[in-house]
Write a structure and sequence with these properties.
Bound molecules: coenzyme A
Largest sheet: 7 strands, mixed
Number of domains: 1
Number of helices: 4
Radius of gyration: 16 Å
Structural class: alpha+beta
Number of strands: 7
């Protein structure tokens, strides 16, 4: 397992590097042997940056908060991320939704598990979250395997949830991890 990449919580100084990573990573979806994993392959960079800023600036008991863990090469380049996002209503503040992605060159090295471990440790230490939810495309075998290995349990299926890449219908699987 490679441990050269480090993981840390993002701050506002990371917005540009994070946005560059999301744009690079999204473009890999469904290309060169990667499964389709993204709802959009070409997210607009300014919108990635501005919406991340809004989420990161919110307190974690505020609606629509977000906190992001970054996977960084030794030189500081962001090559992966995991984000936890809060919901809209006070009554759902005990849950957060997980989204993550690692650039292809850095997959299959154990970083996915490390990112999830970091997020779970942070959720235990710094939040009162009870559940982490996520959605994963049915055909995304690597992601489903990783989530299952980390303790997430499948609890729902949504057929024809997304139509990506000019019309490919994708089934989405819901999973959840109980933290406490
Ligand atoms: C999903 C992702 C985070 C996994 O992280 P990772 O560190 O690369 O994880 P790995 O590939 O090492 O491990 C995942 C598991 O899938 C397996 N796997 C890898 N490629 C596979 C494939 N094509 N088919 C089936 N299983 C596969 C691995 O053997 C591993 O199994 P294990 O748990 O028995 O060891 C990473 O691949 C990624 O970022 N993919 C693109 C974005 C994405 O899919 N995000 C999730 C959206 S919900």
């Amino acid at each position: 397992m490679s441990t050269r990449c480090r993981i840390r919580l993002a701050d506002l100084g990371d917005l540009e590097a994070f946005s560059d990573h999301v744009v690079r990573h999204s473009a890999e979806s469904g290309k060169e042997g990667s499964v389709h994993f993204a709802i959009s392959r070409y997210p607009a960079r300014p919108s990635v940056r501005d919406s991340a800023r809004q989420r990161w600036e919110r307190a974690i008991d505020e609606a629509l908060w977000g906190r992001t863990f970054l996977l960084l090469e030794p030189g500081g380049k962001v090559v992966g991320h995991l984000e936890l996002r809060g919901g809209r209503f006070p009554s759902e503040m005990h849950r957060a939704v997980l989204g993550m992605g690692i650039e292809r060159a850095h997959t299959k090295q154990g970083h996915g598990a490390r990112l999830i471990e970091a997020a779970i440790a942070w959720a235990h230490a710094s939040t009162r979250l009870t559940w982490i939810d996520l959605g994963v495309f049915e055909h995304n075998a690597p992601a489903r395997k990783l989530y299952k290995r980390m303790g997430f349990v499948e609890n729902g299926i949504r057929q024809d949830a997304f139509r990506i890449d000019a019309g490919i219908a994708v089934t989405d699987i819901s999973m959840a991890l109980r933290l406490r």
